[in-house]
Amino acid sequence: xxxxxxxxxxxxxxxxxxxxxxxxxxxxxxxxxxxxxxxxxxxxxxxxxxxxxxxxxxxxxxxxxxxxxxxxxxxx
Length: 76
Hints:
This protein has helices at 3-16, 37-51, 66-75.
């Protein structure tokens, strides 16, 4: 697991109140327990806070899985 995965998985687990071991690259909205559109925004805010970044508003709708968040971060 790389450092971005650790940050993203930890943020998702914290927001969803799940063990970090239950989060993986296949975790996503409406599939992973407790992850819905409202908690998705909380996840993105948590990632932004942890990394000191801001996602573009135009990207928010597409950032709805651990994989999509990590891939977006790797592009920047």
